[in-house]
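User: Some background: our group keeps a shared notebook of sequences we're curious about, and every so often someone picks one and asks for a predicted structure to add to the entry. Today it's my turn. The entry only has the sequence so far, pasted here. Could you supply the structure so I can complete it?
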Amino acid sequence: QVQLVESGGGLVQAGGSLRLSCAASGRTFNLYSMGWFRQAPGKEREFVGRMYWSGGSAAYADSVKGRFTISRDNAKNTVYLQMNSLKPEDTAIYYCAARAAGSSYWGQGTQVTVSS
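Assistant: Of course. Here's the predicted structure to add to the notebook entry:
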């Protein structure tokens, strides 16, 4: 089992920045990838970005490419989502996700609200 705890959400004006963190605990030695999804009111959950735990470049949704950056701290088993140039349409609950030993895990979500 892997447990994920997100932090860093909040309210920000359009054009501002936020950084989300997701700390993994439990059987983290099996981590394969970690990433972020989001779900806006009345919409389905959508992919934001992900990074393989062993290395390599991150992948992003077209809607956030160039504005969002995923990074990780292997020693802390933590992944970050740096969000710049935020837009009102980025308003959503952001969920951390992880793949480990063939299973998927989700955090509880953190609210990001971007005001215009």
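Suggested note for the entry: The radius of gyration is 13 Å. The chain is about 0% helix and 60% strand.
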